[in-house]
Amino acid sequence: MTTLDPALREHAERLLVGTDLSVDDLLVVATGALPASAPAAAAVRDGWNAADPQIGPVSQP
């Protein structure tokens, strides 16, 4: 389990309702440690990468 601000964790949990993803699972996917197995996870991973100046946006074919 990661350490997040409780208000941020609560907000993330509300955003994930209906996705079958937990905040902790999503953080692992966002950092690239696990592959994204759902559209919501892929969207977060791509957003995370786009926000990283060393990685940049992911090009889509």
Task: Summarize the helices and strands and which ones pair or pack.
Layout: H1 6-15, H2 23-30, H3 39-51
List keywords for this structure.
single chain, mainly alpha, 3 helices, 51% helix, globular
Structure in words:
By secondary structure, the chain is mostly helical. It has one domain. The chain is 51% helix and 0% strand. It has three helices and no strands. The protein has helices at 6-15, 23-30, 39-51. The longest helix has 13 residues, at 39-51.
Radius of gyration over all CA atoms, rounded: 12 Å
Helix content: 40-55%
Distance from N terminus to C terminus (CA atoms, Å) equals: 35 Å
Q: Can you tell me the overall shape?
A: globular
Structural class: mainly alpha
Low-confidence stretches: none
Number of domains: 1
**Which strand-content bin applies to the residues?**
under 5%
Total DSSP helices = 3
The oligomerization state is single chain
Let me know the average pLDDT.
Answer: 77
Element order: H for helix, E for strand: HHH
Total strand segments: 0
The biggest beta sheet reads: none
Please sum up the structure shown.
The protein is mainly alpha-helical and 61 residues long. It has helices spanning 6-15, 23-30, 39-51.
